[in-house]
Amino acid sequence: MLPPFWPARPGAIGLQAQHMYVAFTANPGFGLTLWRTAAIACYILFLKCSELPGRIGPGNSCRHEIEEAVIVAMKQMQTPTQATPVSVTHAQAQEKTSETDAPINVAAPGMRKVFVKTYGCQMNVYDSERMSDALFKDGYQKTDNPEDADLLLLNTCHIREKAAEKVYSELGRIRQLKEALAEQGRELMVGVAGCVAQAEGQEIIRRAPIVDVVIGPQTYHRLPQAIARARQGEKVVDTDYAVEDKFEHLPKADKKTITSRGVSAFLTVQEGCDKFCTFCVVPYTRGSEVSRSVQQIEREAQSLVDAGVREITLLGQNVNAWHGHGADGREWGLGELLRLLSDIDGLERLRYTTSHPRDMDESLIDAHRDLDKVMPYLHLPVQAGSDRVLKAMNRRHTAQDYLRLIERIRAARPDIALSGDFIVGFPGETDADFEETIQLVEKVRYAQAFSFKYSPRPGTPGAERDDHVPEDIKAKRLERLQKLLRQHQVEFAENCIGKTIDLLLEKPGREPGQLIGRSPWLQPVIVDAKPSQIGDIIKVRITRTGTNSLYADCV
Questions:
Q1: Of 228, 331, 385, 482, whose CB neighbour count within 10 A is largest?
Q2: Is 95 helix (H, G, I), strand (E, B) or coil?
Q3: How far, in Å, CA of 478 to CA of 486, rounded?
Q4: Mean pLDDT across 429-450
């Protein structure tokens, strides 16, 4: 079946692409979002470059137009219609509930246990918590011991090199555990969720037959139903984009569960990305940009605060691309959302991550200036300091654009701590390009940063290039960059000595009588305090630095 956006008379070359699309989507082995998107892109490429006059040849790239068209296609695939859901099997299995009317299965003494192993970013941590909430309502209690589990769930990340192979390696170890438990007469069900699940789909079942359920990041609200089907002997692969809003179908965590997770919490407000950076798989595994509604976010934030949460970090693959309609009828950006949440009584701190420089607007910068609850910390990845490399990455900003933006942010909030991401050795990067990255780092002077060697991600344009940088050169460049970043991090920490700050106490430290909190700049701070003070915000004076932390005395 062709998607609704496919033209009725595509032309000869477009017809060839149509056949490709049908073949991809009809074959279960290729029933992956990545391949579907690739097929759509193939069609658009043929149409733009071959069927329109003057659109062919190396000097007539229409990449941006292709990207925009793919975004439209993906959004149409994700948009609810009056038609049946994407998958008939999903429709058959689905029992739609909402946060307000979800039936609650009371935990019984003999309830099953689930072990969740989470890879990757804060968004995966949030997703794991919500999956645990959904499973709890279905009779599963969380355990920290995989040998006690009736269900073992891997929530995977696909950003780093060989992510899929690491999952298969882990599944090999799980197979041994499953066989050992079977000898004891116990059944262990295995599920793979997250971005590797989205990218690999049916291939996971083929390579690792011990897996019972494969479920993508956009469909994990269906996990209890998928597990129920698997218990009937079905191998379940659910990686299509949901036509329904998964957040409305997830059960609401009870107050006790939220409280047990601590006084700081994550809250996803945005998913997906439309930027199509040439090194990144996120548009293919997480889909196009989708924002949760103001009402959803406010309701979840209030429930977190009611359960004792005092700090909330808003999450998104491109969090500052969030937008929604406010109570005043206007289109809001993240700055307006922060203003709304800052009015919640009991919520003392707000953070957000991860941002893109192109979506850092004036309203958001003003929020850093005006709102005391917004912490003076910003993770704003640049990836490289060379305009040539930035263009090859499809970042659509220059080094100077980024530096001018940093100046505006620091003018609004002079005490802000900046964090960033860097990729070293992107295909075609020269020594001169790398030196420009070093120069940018010297100008910005990050409080902390994350840096990696470039690793090709299958299906991305960067992986298709033929000018990859040798591994030994990438390693030398990374070592030099990390040494400089570490120097700046140490300098920032040392400049904190003697400062009196507000510290949110979060958890016990390693030593008796110690508690750990986070400074306004996100550094771990160790202080002598009583366990009963967890959740309090106290005045402390920074006395010295540790390897990756600060030490303080109560004032």
A1: 385
A2: coil
A3: 12
A4: 98
Nearest residue to 402 (alpha-carbon basis) of 384, 420, 424, 382: 382
197 close to 156: Cβ distance less than 8 angstroms:
yes
- Dist CA 415 CA 522 (whole Å): 13
> Whose CA is closest to 440, among 470, 493, 395, 472?
395
Instruction: State how far the Cα of 355 lies from the Cα of 315, in Å rounded to an integer.
Output: 9
Q: Convert the pLDDT of each residue in 291-312 to its tens digit.
A: 999 999 999 999 999 999 999 9
Nearest to 442 by CA among 487, 494, 493: 487
Joined tokens for residue 391: 């263009």
Residue 277: count of CB within 10 angstroms of its CB: 21
Distance CA 177, CA 544 (A): 46
pLDDT of 16 over the 90 cut:
no
Rounded Cα distance between 378 and 370, Å, is 15
Alpha helices in 261-398 (DSSP H): 282-285, 294-306, 334-341, 362-370, 387-392
Q: In 3-state terms, what secondary structure has residue 501?
A: strand
Question: What is the identity of the amino acid at 245?
Answer: D
Task: Work out the end-to-end distance of the chain between its first and last CA atoms, rounded to an integer number of angstroms.
Answer: 68
C-alpha dihedral (462, 464, 469, 475), degrees to nearest 10: 60
How much is the average pLDDT of 80-88?
30
**Radius of gyration in angstroms for the set of CA atoms belonging to the chain, rounded to a whole number:** 24
In this prediction, residues 152-158 reach a mean pLDDT of: 89
Query: pTM score > 0.85 for this model?
Result: no
Identify the CA nearest to 193 among candidates 162, 160, 219: 219
Report which of 460, 413, 100 is spatially closest to residue 251, judged by C-alpha positions.
100
395 touches 440 (CB < 8 A): no
Looking at residue 222, its pLDDT comes to: 87
For 45-77, the pLDDT digits (tens) are 544 444 343 333 333 445 555 555 555 555 555
Write the CB contacts of 313 (distance below 8 Å, at least 6 apart in sequence). Answer: 122, 264, 265, 266, 267, 350, 351, 352, 353
| Domains by residue range for the chain, with CATH | 11-79 (no CATH), 89-245 (3.40.50.12160), 247-495 (3.80.30.20), 500-554 (2.40.50.140)
CA–CA gap between residue 252 and residue 119 (Å, rounded) = 23
Which pLDDT band, with edges at 50, 70 and 90, does 87 fall under?
Answer: very low
**Interval 90-115: pLDDT, tens:** 322 333 233 333 333 334 445 899 99
Helix (H) or strand (E) holding 287: none
On whether the CB atoms of residues 493 and 521 are closer than 8 A, the answer is no
Local structure of residue 252 (DSSP, 8 states): P
Q: In this predicted structure, what is the pLDDT of residue 41? A: 55
Instruction: Identify the CA nearest to 453 among candidates 488, 479, 484.
Output: 479
Coil, strand or helix at 157: coil
Helices 471-495 & 431-444, crossing angle to 10 degrees? Answer: 10
- Asked whether 197 and 32 are in contact (CB, 8 A), the reply is no
- Taking only the tens place, the pLDDT of each residue in 167-197 is 889 999 999 999 999 999 999 999 999 888 8
Bond prior to 79 in cis (omega within 30° of 0): no
Whether 553 contacts 541, CB under 8 Å = yes
